[in-house]
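Progress against Task 2.4 (sequence-to-structure conversion) is shown through the following example record, which the project officer requested during the mid-term review.
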Amino acid sequence: MTRVLRGLGPRARAALVAGLVALAVYANAPRNRWALDDVGIVLQNPAAHSVPAAWAARFSPYWPVEQGHPAGLYRPAVILSYAVDWTLADGAPWWFHLHNVVLHALATGLVVLVATAWLPVPAALAAGLVFAVHPVHVEAVANVVGRAELLAALGLLLAVLAFRSYRGADSRAARVGWGAATVAAVLLALFSKEHAVVAVAVLALDAWLARSAARRWGGGLLAVILGCTVAWLVLWQTIAAPYVEGVIAPTLRHLSFGQRLATMLPVYLEVLRLLAWPLRLAYDYNPQVIPQRTELTVVAALGALVAGAVVALGLLSRRRAPAVAFGILMAAVSYAPTSNLLFASGTVLGERALYLPALAPALAAAWLLASAWGGRWRRIALVGLGALLAVYSVRTVTRTPFWMDGPTVLIESVVAHPENYRTRRQLARQRAMRGDSLGALTDYLVAGELFDRDASVATESAALALAMGRRRVALREARRAVALEPGEPAATSALVNAYLAVGWTDSALTAARAAIDHRPRDVTLAALYVELHQWLVSPEWQQGLARARLEWLNGRRAAAVAALNSAVASLEWDTQVDQVCPELQTVRAVGDTEATEWEQHLEGALRRADVACGPD
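Structure tokens generated for the chain above:
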């Protein structure tokens, strides 16, 4: 090893040392197994089990659609890496974890190389060491699905280094080569995680901080990368965007922009704490770990003030401390897509999203060391850095087993944060799977008390209560779910079943019809309506109209028209118009406008049956 180190240059030696420390601090990670999303994304995902399957799924969402929650994510590079791992190790989880650790070590080495643009090698090494052992990285490294963060970070850091070489290249051939390398690195990041959409801003930031007469600005290549980003956005819009609405964090769902700010501004204080002193960690920051706030508070104002001051410090440090400026502004840019400032995302706060933002404390600590290196504060700076690395390392090593497997994460989370409603819901699901229905229902109800704005908790508790014969509890929870998410199919189904259980058939029909009014083109609701009429043995014309809607929504137009004509023809002479017209209105709503083909079929059937119902 000594000979190898001597054969390398100072920058390479520092990068290698930092990478080895990263490997050492996560030496216990390969003992972990599958935890939480690992199961759905890797263990139960056929696309992650072979390279041909991963390639065939290259235009598919990250979450398998057949699992019911594709989640609006598109990460084919990550799925391909899982497929390679599965092929090499026959699905052994230790190999996947080892791969993550190696990727973290590579990213750590790149941090050292990036930092040497502004810092002497010893200080750059210090930045790499802080980054290597920072406890906020544990979720990204020790949980298999954290690989998306690792690959995206690796791509962005490689892009920064390649872009620097492109801007300093002397020959056209070198510029073409480094330009292609930059684009390839950006594409790796983009196809690994969505927040790499900020790649152009990251490269422009680095060029702005390091610009000199010896280097060109690189505007042409930035334009190419911007074009690649736009093309990726179009691809993402086609493949994953239709599923985005369903992944907004329940804490932020249905909040106005002002209310979202009231909730998120205090979170930025927690982000800064995690970056500076991450000894208290949590895998989930849903209420009441971080509460939902709908009005601006003093804490929110403080969060805005502190976050703004940190960004201002980054801007003001450009000349005297470009390393600090890069760390702070890189953190701000890379965190922006998941900050819930511009738009609501699927998480209020996730530690894995802070993987790249951890550059801020790493480079700040390195700059402080470099500033004190030649003065009387050198020894104090070294002792302080050593103490920080020791504390961080111990916390990282002790935190890694938290991600051993799903039950471990759940138990440890409930113990550490009993106020988290989401862990209570997960505990309820586990108890229900083991047959402990009473315990599961209790946990569901506790989760609903802790945070009463998540319709899925109410829906699941209603279904369980109904299965247990607790009809009144089921009805109360189902009503709460529908009030939170009008027209949501699962909530509607729970309410309809609860009404049927207590014998309120008219209320069941009204609830189903109201859901259709909210989502007239929802196939699941249309099928529910057909089943409801069949169960109630409704008149033939009602069942026929419901079938006509469903057939039309499923694209079976001939069958839909036949069902419509049959239903209208079966109307009895004494059928009241006030009974017929509400049903016809649900049928009419299938069309987009009155001039659609469906509307023409409907009007023709009504004329033949001599029934008059207006469009409203």
